[in-house]
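Review box. Two proteins, two foldings.
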Amino acid sequence: MSNNAQSTRVSRRRFLKGSAVAAGTAAAGTVAMPNVSRAETTVLKMQSSWGATGIFQDMARQYTERCEKMSGGRLKFDLLPAGAVVKAFEVQNACDSGIIDCAHTVTAYWYGKNKAASLFGTCPVFGIDSNQTLAWIQSTQGKELYRELVQDILKLNVVGFFTMPMPTQPLGWFKKEIKDLKDLRRMKYRTVGLATDIMQRMGMRVTQLPGGEIIPAFERGVIDAFEFNNPTADRQLGAQNVSKNFVLASYHQPAEFFEIIYSKKKFDSLAPELQAICEYGAEAASTASLGMAYDRYSKDLQGLINEDGVSVSRTPDSVLEAQLKSWDEVLVKLERDPYFKKVLDSQRAWAERVGFFSHTNTADFKKAYNHYFPGKLKS
């Protein structure tokens, strides 16, 4: 036998011996480690602030389904619609007290506890869109400011995560055409969050109502006009049956997001990997929900126009100018609160930097749209 052949045989024996030892070690490790896929399933009772058949409930389900799949069956969500346990505006209190484990809602619905809540939802129009604002909320500073508000200031037993950068919300539905600012004076109007302050300062009489109460109030004349959120949700409410004037592209709610909240006691009881799934599942659902929004909102806008005979227009410039002035005046007063000012300063700095990049870098997509689809957009 040659020296090379003998060396090869020795090397092979060493390899096989090493492999056997490694396999034995791995087997021992397998016995020592728990089989996580067979761990007990935790059922979480989640209530949303949305009706059972609405698109927002579909988006809540996108979140729960992703968390369940990523957990390998260790998490199960019992997703309930608004009113199943508590009213739409009461889910935060229910999480705090442990009546429910978690909720799918928006911060504007607990705006009455602290107006800074709206800075994480129906926030000021600083020239950036909802995607860019959500990036601020999910930054280290944004997360800490939210935690400070919920846990330190309001003393709530709640943790929360954000998802779904909503497209700009409509000015809303009106029983007559809106041509300029004077058409809104003294009108009884439904909105939520800081938008209530903005529209009141413009001379409107504003009330906050959950989605399910809007159309009955509109039909009875309790309100003269309203905004809810988007063409799909508004069409599902039946807005087109009581009004034919739908006005888009307002500054009163340039951005909003879903807030997914948990009872902190319940959340802390979950294994770290399940906590991570609950947190980062919100990011996964964000992409899915925005995709659903673009698909369904665009289809329903066409349906409102072509099937329901709705007249769709954009917010008049005089109203937009008045909204910007109103934002300025409202924020000056609210900034007297040190915490509100701290959050607003952080948002402003973010918007100034990110907005400069975006407006300098982003191509004129409207020009390209007009090139390929001439005549579709109104001048």
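Next protein.
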Amino acid sequence: MPAHLELLDQHGQLTLCIGGQWTLAHYRILAARIAEPGMRIGAETSLDFSALTALDTAGARLLCELVGVERLTGMLADAGLAPGQRELLEAVATALAASAAPSEKRYRFGDVLVHIGKATLAFREHTIALLGFIGLTLAGLARTACRPRRWRVTATVASLEEIGLNAVPIVALLTFLVGAVVAFLGATVLADFGATIYTVNLVSYSFLREFGVLLTAILVAGRTASAFAAQIGAMRVNEEVDAIRVLGLDPVELLVLPRVLAMMLALPILAFIAMLCGIAGGVAVCALKLDITPEMFLSTLANDIGLSHFLVGIGKAPIFAFLIGAIGCLEGFRVSGSARSVGEHTTSAVVQSIFTVIVVDAVAAMFCMEMGW
């Protein structure tokens, strides 16, 4: 039966008769019928659904527009509809009511506080997760330290090549250029006081204590922490980590410890190379622009810069390495199982690693200053 809609006056009582097939095939006809001026119903108009034979979402939407969402929702229980038709009308009415609800005002002061609260809770969860993962890693190191058979030598050496050897060119080039820039800036400022010779102290002090290890850690965080997160995250997506657990192996021992150990071995070496290259950049600038020969530069370095500055700088390298490796592996394990999740946690690994390295370096600098080192 085709869809029909008729308003009848039965002894002074208006009744709207709804019948036929209220489906998408009759949508245009029904929409035009509903739009007629005489098709306006009031609260006293009764509804008759007895002749309704078919209903889909298009027809349900027209009924909601004709009768009204609130009124239609309130009368569904006594409308005499088939169970499927009643459930469909309820779902469409609920969706229309939700879409018609006025949206809350945004960017209020309370919203700012809510955002700050959510960010604080997320930071707290990240911190707790990182501390717990660091504990698992240290426990794994303690378990395998006295069991040479469980050492993953091949995986450690492969990671050492990837982390250390392949990163030497970029670390050396970057620190050489930064050393040259620091020497240029120092010479520009110190020339006004006739103290250009102290450019040697500036370059040596900055690279031995801070720039050498800090620039190396930032480069490694961007280059290697992301690789750790992506590699382990891809294994999570492919369910390889679950397969490792099914085989009775420990994913931390198999995947994390070789990477962290390789990082702790590679970063101090890279930091030492960075210190040498940074000082070499300063030597080049001093020789070309300040008439300070390499012999004079190295003599001033040996006489005025103590070994303690080198020890402070190189001593931070294993700490940075452990934190970068732990963060990268943790973010890999937190991948949920999609390509988008891999990308998000890879980015998060880089950001967290760089942030953590800078924070720890700042704390270490203040500590050393207070201790007089």
